[in-house]
Amino acid sequence: MAIIELRELEYQYEESDEKVLKGLTKDVHRGEWLSIIGANGSGKSTLSRLFNGLSQPTEGSVHVLGKNTADDKALQMIRQEVGMVFQNPEHQFVAPTVRDDIAFGMENAGVPREVMLERIKEVSQWVNIEHILHMEPHRLSGGQKQRAAIAGILALRPQVMVFDESTSMLDPNGRKEILETMSRLCRESGITIISITHYLEEAFKSDRIWFMKAGRIEKDITTKNIPDQLEWMEAEGMPLPYKYQLYQEVKKRRIDMRTLRTMVEGE
Amino acid sequence: MDVNFQEVSHVYMQKTPFETLALKNVNAYFRASSVTAVIGRTGSGKSTLVQHINGLLKPSAGVVSVGEHHLEAKTKRKTVKAVRSHVGMVFQYPEHQLFEETVEKDLLFGPKNKGMDVAEIQKKLPELLQQVGLSESLLKRSPFELSGGQMRRVAIAGVLATNPDILILDEPTAGLDPQGQKEILKLFMNWQRTYQPTTIMITHQMEEAAAFAEYMYVMEDAEIKMQGEPETIYAQRKKLQEMDLDIPEQVQVLQQIEQDSGIRFPHYQLSPAEAADYWRRAVQNGGVPRV
Amino acid sequence: MFENVIIGQYLPGRSYLHHMDPRAKIAAVVFLIIVIFLVNSWHGYALFGGAAIAVYFLSGVPFRYIRKGMFPVFILVILTFFLHAFFTRDGEVLFSIGMFSFYEEGIRQGLFISLRLLLLVYFTSLLTLTTSPIDLTDALEQMFSPLERFKFPAYDVAMMMSIAIRFIPTLLQETEKIIKAQTARGADFNKGSMRDRMQAFVSLLVPLFVRAFRRAEDLAYAMEARGYNGGEGRTKLRLLVWGWRDTLCCCLIAVFGVILLFLRQ
Lengths: 267, 291, 265
Prior knowledge:
Chain B: Its EC number is 7.-.-.-. Chain A is α/β, with parallel strands linked by helices. Chain A has helices spanning 44-50, 72-81, 98-109, 113-126, 142-154, 172-187, 200-204, 226-235, 242-252, 258-265, and strands at 2-11, 21-29, 33-38, 59-64, 67-68, 82-85, 160-164, 192-197, 208-213, 216-222. The radius of gyration of chain A is 20 Å and the shape is globular. By secondary structure, chain B is an alpha/beta fold. The radius of gyration of chain B is 21 Å and the shape is globular. Classes of the chains: A alpha/beta, B alpha/beta, C mainly alpha.
């Protein structure tokens, strides 16, 4: 079932003569983990801002839970249902401490204080930051800041969460933390995840991948089919993780390497 | 130029409640013209370590020798400046340091400050831009009109413009897409081959360290916990994991295959094609007990 | 480089003063500032000094922080003292040095004014040392909110202040980083000709501004995405709690004021 519907979606920046997004018609399904991957300038970050009406399409439409993002009256609801985690951890931490930052979205939504206190407790436990609730942002790691942002969104009980390259400024540990959290959000809490990334390894962990190129969705594959798509990805010049490259080389030589086969194709 | 750390300690915010020990009795040696990687998790002291090499930080105790100069707690600024003129440092997100009206002016900022022959360097700028993968037509453009990737390259060129004897790279590829990361790393490898500076690279990414460095230091909690050639370091996966570090994916995959099959690879820097060939030969020679 | 800067001079702690409601502390300091201008006797200053010492023990702030905070004011204090000592010519001549004569009233006035200044700075620095900037902002917002009726945007000002406070450490970190980067490129911020130093300064300011604009843009998106819409219909997590300490403090201060009035000459 579609939770977000893109129809004939086009986007063009005012100062530019070329469209960044060219006629996208696609659905995001409820409960899936969707990755959007593409080089810089492929339009993936622009697309991310259309999911919750931070930008409006030049042509076509975006519907979230059946409501058009161009409808001003629906916008408040849409922003609560579609949470967004941005790239730079430092630039989305608004409040003086973790606790205040988690509360920020709820304060905006007019959630009563007692409810806020309960939810802060709940979500901070869930993303495992209850021990740093009192801390100021300059004492936190990038991963901790991103988890605070996730907690703040989670407190608003969203159905969709968009991650706009949220791991790209983190160190390997921070990246691991956030990926694990994304996976749990999707598998345990049933939240639809849309993650925009330029790391193939990350995209391979999700359910479905849109490959974007020059404003179009070039390919839409489920990750179960990755082995069949490797050749195409290589031809496109995508930097595949080593095990996939090796898998391809081994296949070319018509030999069998069981360890590798399990790694790539699963059990 | 050699760099040598002897019993170096550094204390941040001395005599305040926030006092922290950022380096603890560090001994390290960086041989002239070699490439060394410094690995460790955020806050392990890597950046503190390298900032001692050009006197941005002074040791609270111990001596840092750079060539024939010695930097200590009480070293005079004249010595520090003399050392600095030999050292080029690419910071994390170096594009944040761009400020001039044109790319050309920004590139000349370093050479001018360090009292070099500006006219001579100016002549070489087109070549320099080419070396960092940019077109010379950018020289007269404003650095702020460029794309993020281009800005990073200009900033890097600004450091390379002084042709430093010691080149320090603090996570030079952070935040780039994988393609960009590869290109930037390659750029430094080419530079190293041509001009042979002593290169010290801080990185989170084991893959980068493996591809570039001949020697590695692993830091944790303000101390150097491991050192050696990359292969030696990777052999101690458990110890690395205790420090929240992991070996490169490539090494993981090859080690896993070795473990399952009993076949030994000669080393872990094999390209996928080489690894597949090696495997096939081993299988043909009957070296496979279990597949 | 900025290792010695203590943000907003706030020192976290668990003392009596730390636990007080910031509104009570602000009210108390304002009251003390007014009262101190009424004091004109030695008894009064002795009493004030006693109070200052008592409050010092209630604050739990190490003395060197107070000393450090007050040091810049000392120059001003000494200057004011001599101004008064030189130019007030009432009462008996106490002693003369060369052509300068020092009068009793001059010394007295000089001492009084100096003491006033010192006490004033002392109490305000204790306020900022024991109150986090955010609590201060919250308190000021509440204290000024009655003025909203007269179109004073207390809410927006408080939001701006709290964001500004939030980003001070970021700005300091960034400044330090850029100074280091330019220093590594040979810029000299401390020595060299005026021209060179100007150049170094520009190399710091331009990147800082560029970054600040970028950050503002990102922040605006982040706030909008989380439903920020201005003050209307907003609830607040932070609650200022007025406790027994605060009532006690206000009572004590009122009594203190009355006694000081009686001690006036």
